[in-house]
Amino acid sequence: MKRLACLMMLVCAISACGSRTPASAPTPQSHLAAQIDSALADPAFENAAWGIVIQSIDDGELLYRRNAYKLFMPASNMKLVTAAVTLAELGADHRVPTTLEMCGTMDAGVLNGDLLVVGGGDPSISARFNDESPTAVFEDWADALRERGIERITGRVVADDDRFEDVHIGPGWSWDYLDASYAAEIGALLLNDGALGLRFLPGDSVGDSASVTLDPPTSYVTFDGVVRTVEDTTDVDLSYSRDPFSNVVRLTGDISIQEDTLRRTVAVHDPTMYFATVLTETLRENGIEIAGDPVDRDDEPLLQCDSAVTVLQHLSPPVSEMIVPFLKVSQNQMGEMFMRYLGAAATDTGSVETGRRVVESQLTSWGISPRGYVYFDGSGLSRYNYLSPDTIVRLLRVMAQREDFDVFYDALPIAGEDGTLRNRFAGTRAERNARAKTGFISNARALSGYVTTRDGERLAFSLITNDFDVPVRVVEYAQDLVVELLANYSEAIEDR
Known about the structure:
Blueprint: H1 2-15, H2 28-40, E1 49-56, E2 62-66, H3 78-90, E3 97-107, E4 110-118, H4 136-147, E5 152-153, E6 157-160, E7 195-201, E8 211-215, E9 222-225, E10 228-230, E11 239-242, E12 248-252, E13 254-256, E14 262-267, H5 271-285, E15 289-290, E16 295-296, E17 309-315, H6 319-328, H7 332-347, H8 352-365, E18 373-374, E19 386-387, H9 389-400, H10 405-411, E20 435-441, E21 444-452, E22 458-466, H11 472-487
Parallel strand pairs: 4-5, 4-6, 5-15, 6-16, 9-12, 10-13
Antiparallel strand pairs: 1-2, 1-22, 3-4, 3-17, 7-8, 7-14, 11-12, 18-19, 20-21, 21-22
Helix pairs in contact: 2-11, 3-6, 3-7, 3-8, 6-10, 7-8
């Protein structure tokens, strides 16, 4: 009887029995909150930490908050910060220079001395910006040198990367993935995002070794091991790896004889010498003799360079174009280059520390508290990075008020259409509506951006999930569901 009495008291309290005032009818906002809460209450997320902020761009109304001010590992959502500050500090039309200089004297088509290439921190000398040809820029340089009458160089290609400090990986990067192209080293001279393309072709017969071609073709890396040609199409296992600070790529496994080709990429060690080596090889392939081997200016002095003469200055595409692959396909090396370039523009030396100071100063000017972030690299690959959902939404709202907002907005992945959101949101109201930046590192998944409701109201949102122990797709499903709820949201009661 006592337990029954206690239960009756609890039921009475919940149902407001007696003369208490009935609970008010749910509002559209409370209904939305209940739907989100229900989605996140799934037992699959028992160990997960969720941070969410959803706020109107138009009037600043907060529609939902959960752990808004707590710090989460944002993964590539950190690229939103880097892109926003890069736009604000440099401007959409800014271009990054790389300079070729003659250190020596000219005599009848011969440069008696060295060809100096001075890196400015251009992240665009790559296949992605040059019709899928990683050496297209170098081929143009060869044409320009011949037009200047240079047919032979008695010295070497000397690479000057001093615009950035000689720290080529980000703080907090893991050593076990440094051979992966997404974690390639960076420097003031960067070719093809610091990566080398591998193309595997099966042999003519089962048991033959597969052939490997490189893009760009280069002697800079060597191979150890072989990939065998096999008949089976279901149980092949081709793998490759490179130890840190080595340019020997180990090959193992097999490829089906029925396979046309397999394409992979591997990061190289020492981006400066990779750049100088491929430049030397490309110039030679295009008719310019070079007597010596390429060198880093830090390792050997120039033969003679009392007065360098500029041969040409190459300019990158404008920032407005470069941030498109940075955000849409989440290209990590571009974020690291932007971060260091910001530091170099402010102090003449690009480093993590100088770039960080520029970013922090800009965020402060936007009214974003230092307590809402820990900024350690420009890409989000570092596990030292932290952002609060409130910080991200504040940033998104600041950008929405700027004159260059269209540049920022157009660079974001479009739901169901391109970039890292190409295969998400198909057939929903969020498709081609939401524009958002994804983020993923182990046990951290983020999605932040913009979406328009059924009423035409623009919302900024940030959804960050940390510490989950379920497949990533389960977290993505929940995040997608929240964005779909926002795309279907309406203040009109009759639409509930």
